[in-house]
Write a structure and sequence with these properties.
about 450 residues, mainly alpha, globular
């Protein structure tokens, strides 16, 4: 018979792990996505004031993308030590780094004050943000997934659900700051307040995170890989490539809906606040979508849920921009809600468990982080690419074709991948094509 005390302890630790992962993810993405919103509405005017508005927007999105380019580096760096010495220590480090860097962004002088050094320091700090969030995600997901004994998709999804919660928190913080300060003062000092508040969130996050124990799967693993990255590249290269391919469409859609569409909506004639309000609503509802589709993937499997989401997004990409161009606020909000809260979560939610299930314990932190963060480049590069397409005289139809192309790539990768929901986290995963689809949860 199971030891009741041990079972109770395990349940308590699972709940703490899930809470820690969720709150930590909210804080990390508050900081990371606060930059995304600010890059769309503030940074072009504050740090690239010598450029024309369209070029300044592209440059601002470029610094935004720098954070995504740094995320794979963070996945490798923190994944290495997370696989070698433990998940928990790395999570404390990543959260501290993110909080301090975000505070420093809030204190950064403008271009008018220190000239070219302002955007240079901004890019440097953004890269450090990317390194931090790149290391955070893998550890947070593993803390939940490796503590779970069932319903792994559901529990792991709370880390991903933290992203739209962080978006809501960051959007509300910027909106409140703008309302209190006024338009002129907001550009001078109001935008800084949400960044400076990061130091308070850091204290709350560390208090929660320090109460969680190391995962039992890692504690029982014994020997670890000397260089986890080499272990991933040697033993799981196909799994890594498929993880990247499966995640790309979800992130391209995320970057389009949460970042590019802010600037595009304002250019289309909506007020900034109208677009942000729609984004806030869709982000709140996205939490339900992410958790719901992830729970569904425990029952149906990861593959059918992600596949349905990719096909739906390919179709929706051709409806999105005509809906925004309608000039109707209700239609704009419907477009954001359908895209971000219904379709994208079907692709994005199951990724947490899926990436975890593709790698062995000895290199899981590195493998899951690298696969997820490489695919995450889609969210960082999509706004830059799409802004450049429009700046070069291209149309929104071209943008829709690009989104649909990434969705097709995801469909192909899902078809090539065997179902992962039945994989045990205490054993090496099977090769992508070696197992028949299953809906059994270990």
């Amino acid at each position: 018979m199971a030891n009741p005390a041990a079972t109770t302890h395990s349940t308590v630790q699972l709940r703490r792990a899930v809470a820690s992962s969720f709150v930590g993810s909210v804080i990390e993405y508050y900081d990371f996505l606060l930059y995304a919103t600010a890059s769309a509405v503030v940074f072009g005017k504050v740090f690239f004031s010598t450029l024309d508005p369209l070029t300044a927007t592209v440059a601002s999105f470029g610094t935004f993308a720098a954070g995504y380019l740094a995320r794979p580096l963070g996945g490798i760096l923190f994944g290495h030590f997370g696989d070698r010495i433990g998940r928990k220590k790395m999570l404390v480090t990543t959260m501290t780094l993110m909080g301090v860097v975000s505070f420093l962004i809030g204190a950064l002088p403008t271009y008018g004050q220190i000239g070219i050094w302002a955007p240079i320091i901004l890019v440097t700090l953004r890269i450090l943000q990317g390194v931090a969030v790149g290391g955070e995600w893998g550890g947070a997901v593993l803390m939940s997934a490796e503590h779970a004994t069932s319903r792994r998709g559901l529990w792991a999804s709370f880390t991903n659900a933290g992203a739209p919660c962080g978006m809501v928190l960051s959007t509300v913080a910027l909106t409140a700051s703008a309302a209190i300060a006024g338009e002129e003062a907001f550009l001078v000092w109001g935008w800084r307040v949400p960044f400076l508040l990061s130091i308070l969130l850091l204290g709350i996050g560390l208090f929660i995170r320090l109460k969680v124990e190391e995962t039992p799967v890692f504690a029982a693993a014994g020997k670890t890989a000397r260089v986890p990255l080499f272990d991933v590249l040697r033993n799981h290269p196909r799994n890594l490539l498929l993880a990247v391919g499966i995640g790309l469409a979800a992130f391209v859609a995320q970057g389009t809906l949460t970042t590019f569409l802010i600037a595009y909506g304002v250019e289309a004639g909506y007020s900034r606040q109208t677009v942000l309000n729609g984004l806030t609503l869709s982000s709140v509802l996205a939490v339900i979508g992410i958790i719901g589709f992830s729970a569904l993937s425990d029952r149906l499997g990861r593959r059918p849920v992600v596949l349905a989401g990719a096909v739906a997004m390919a179709v929706f990409s051709f409806l999105l921009f005509p809906m925004v161009d309608s000039g109707d606020v209700v239609v704009l909000v419907v477009a954001l809600v359908v895209g971000q809260a219904v379709i994208q979560p079907a692709m994005y939610g199951p990724l947490a468990a899926l990436c975890t299930e593709l790698f062995s314990t000895r290199s899981r932190y590195t493998g899951a982080s690298l696969g997820y963060q490489l695919s995450g480049l889609g969210a960082g590069l999509a706004p830059v690419l799409f802004a450049s397409v429009l700046a070069g005289g291209g149309s929104t139809t071209t943008i829709s074709l690009i989104i649909a192309g990434f969705c097709l790539l995801t469909v192909v990768c899902v078809v090539l991948l065997a179902e992962t929901s039945g994989n045990s986290l205490t054993e090496n995963p099977p090769s992508p094509a070696a197992a028949a689809p299953t809906t059994t949860i270990s």
